[in-house]
Structures are given as C-alpha cells and as structure tokens.
Structure of NitT/TauT family transport system ATP-binding protein:
Amino acid sequence: MTEAVRSGLPPTGDVAPIADKIRIEGLSYRYRRRGREDVVALDDVDLTVGRGEFLSVAGPSGCGKSTLLRVLAGLQKPTAGVVRINRERRGRPLVAPVFQEYSIFPWRSVEANVRLGLDAAGVDRSEARRRSQEWIERVGLAGFEKALPGNLSGGMKQRVALARAFVVEPEILLMDEPFAALDAQLRKVLQEELLAIVREHTYTVFFVTHNLDEAILLSDRIALMSARPGRMRRIVDVPFARPRSAELRKDPEFVRLEEELWADLKGDVETIEEVVR
C-alpha cells in the first residue's frame, strides 16, 4: 500500500505506513478574515477510519464537519496537523465527494454528468457508457439519460450526483449531508439505496450529517463533534449488525441510542441558539 499525505506543511522524509484507511492527527483549521479575528473551525482533531468502514460525523451547525470533509477531499489545506490516507490501488480514484448542493453541470445531460469522471480518467468510451448506464439504472434514473438537470427534481439531481460518485469506483466516498435538502420520504428511499450499495461494494465512507437517526441507520461508528471550535467529543460504536433496513428504527435500542446521542449534543445546540438570539 502507498500513502497519500495532506497537511498544512509539506511532508519531509519517509512517512510510516498506516493500518487505517484514514488517519487524522492534530488537525486544526482557521478561516482567515482580513481585518477581523480568525475563525477557528477545527482544533486539534484526531480521528481514524478503518478500511471499508462507514463513519458518520455529527454535531451542531458550524462545528466544522464540512470543513473536515473538504480537507479530506483536498479542497482545503489544514492550518496545522496531518491527514494520512492509505492508497490501495493506483489508477482508482482515491476519493469521490457528494455534496448537498448536487454540484452537477446544468449544460450536461444526466448521462454526460454521470460519465464525467470516467471521461477525465481516460476510460474507453464504450466502457464508460456501459458503466454509466449501469449506475443510472441503479439509482432509478433509467429513461432520463438525455435529460438536462433543469428538467429534473431535486431528488433526481441528487441521484445523478450519487451515480457520478459511485461510477468511478473510488476508494473513499466523502458525503456531505447529501440528503439534507430532500423531503422526508425521498430521504428514506435514498438512505435505503445507499445501504444496499454499501452492502454490495467495499467502500470506505466518510459521511457528514446533522441527523442522528440517519447516522445510526447507516454507520458503523459515529464521531460526535463539539460546537466551534470543532473538537472530537466522543466516538460511538453502532451496535447493529448488517444488513440493515429502515425497520431498524423501530428497535428500542435504536431509539435509546438516538436519545443518548441527542443528550450528548443538546447542550452545544442550545448554547448556539442562545448566541443567535
């Protein structure tokens, strides 16, 4: 295995291999604001994610969850600390992000949006079309291959974004509240779809959410973050075997765990509300 290193400073010398898929050590991030005090979004964060693990990060608004994901994606450089990622196969994308805002190109058809990463990687056109069609059908968009995003509902746009991430077969899926903008019914449908996909394919998933119900249903572990500056408050093992279905929500242990997690976060959320008032 080789290792990708992302840090605030260039690495020097050899780095020791890591057993985990992702290891975050002493990570801090400050948003610089000209003429005003810096905003400390993350402070001394340590976290590991195992290969094939589904880890959710939950916490109050503004705690740095999305900033942490963007650092993993290579979109932002940390102010301090290091991120180490085990790359297992050259030629396979290391990460593929899915954001709440869909992030699909309005001038490209559904098929062209889904195929985008394959085209960029130089995959043979016929193979790219075959793989794209497979995932278009998998996410329930068959018949809409030539449609432009302007003619799609919000839920359909998010399905395009999901298919575009899955089709490139990344080692790590980075998902930033991908279902937050959807109505409750469609959210549950796509949660079920994600459970099925993760069951069939070996992905490491780093999933940001503010929804504790969603985190418990989907995850192997949940990382709870404190209010800004974001720090790791607690890592919780989710005690339910896979495969899972939406029926799990009726389990008394599921309800108990959700109440326990909410009790842990409630103080931070209430403090933020008081500050806003």
